[in-house]
Amino acid sequence: AQFILAIIHLVFYSKKRFTNNDSKVGHALYQLFFGLGLIGLLVVLFVTPKSDTPMVIN
Fold it and tell me: How many other C-beta atoms are found inside a 10 Å radius of the C-beta of residue 18?
């Protein structure tokens, strides 16, 4: 659960940081981070056993 929260925090931090910077590089980096975060989230959701991991989404 901590790992998921860390990924979400990283994604939102990246978004806040990169959207202030209007350059194409910043936007590309933001999309890359967002994609990686999404993939990581899915991997964590599907790989970890369900019984073992209580999902807490607030």
Answer: 20
DSSP 58: -
Cα torsion angle, 21, 24, 25, 29, sign: positive
Query: In the chain, count of helices (H) and strands (E)?
Result: 2, 0
Q: How far apart are the first and last CA of the chain?
A: 12
Higher-pLDDT residue of 37 and 10 is 37
Residue 7 near residue 37 (C-beta atoms within 8 A):
yes
Q: What does pTM read for this prediction?
A: 0.39
